[in-house]
Write a structure and sequence with these properties.
Elements (H helix, E strand, L loop, with lengths): L2 E9 L6 E3 L2 E2 L9 E9 L5 E8 L10 H7 L3 H7 L3 H12 L2 E5 L3 H11 L9 E3 L1 H8 L3 H4 L4 H4 L12 H15 L6
Parallel strand pairs: 1-6, 6-7
Antiparallel strand pairs: 1-4, 2-3, 4-5
């Protein structure tokens, strides 16, 4: 039976980094370090098989900004207590995804590759399919709904504000949309 994974990442950010229209403005020390990896494994009928939720300790900026703590709900304490180094979390992620087709609703593939570079790791087999443009073109989803935290509301699901920008919750949002639209993951 073929299996699929939806990936969502949260990464370090500071107030003023996002300028709108998917534009960013960062200082050189403001790296995009992954702080949460969310994954939902499912079958062709969109039935959840397994979930993965990992907190990752950033190395360049180990102290989270107030901005990212408020956005994601990830506290410094939680990260220090349950977080692990990127190399370890990536190994777990790869094992979780073994033999699956991986999707994301955004540039998570680029963020993952940047973090591989930060940690001097190479993975030439990493293939994460960004479905954001496909969903946007096919369903004419307005920009304010296209992000993983909001996309499900465009299809009639209720918004849970306290769960926005939580990687696991965002994965579940995207799965709801795939199921509702009967997105052909097996293409």
């Amino acid at each position: 039976m073929k299996k699929y994974v939806i990936l969502d990442l949260e990464w370090t950010s500071w107030k003023g980094n996002h300028c709108g229209n998917n534009q960013e403005k960062r200082k050189s020390w403001q790296k995009k370090e992954i702080i949460q990896i969310g994954g939902v494994k499912f079958d062709k009928n969109y039935k959840i098989i397994d979930k993965l939720n990992i907190y990752v300790k950033p190395i360049f900026n180990p102290i989270l900004s107030d901005y990212i703590k408020n956005l994601t709900g990830i506290s410094q304490k939680k990260l220090e207590k349950t977080g692990m180094i990127f190399a370890q979390s990536y190994k777990i992620f790869k094992k979780f995804c073994k033999g699956t087709k991986i999707f994301s609703n955004g540039d998570d593939n680029l963020i993952m590759k940047i973090n591989l570079d930060y940690n001097n790791l190479i993975d030439r087999k990493l293939n994460i399919i960004n479905i954001k443009k496909i969903l946007n073109l096919k369903y004419k989803i307005p920009k304010k709904f296209i992000d993983s935290s909001m996309i499900h509301t465009f299809f009639g699901y209720k918004l849970k504000k306290n769960k926005m920008h939580n990687a696991m919750h965002d994965c579940l949002n995207v799965l709801k949309v795939l199921k509702k639209t009967k997105y052909k993951v097996y293409k």
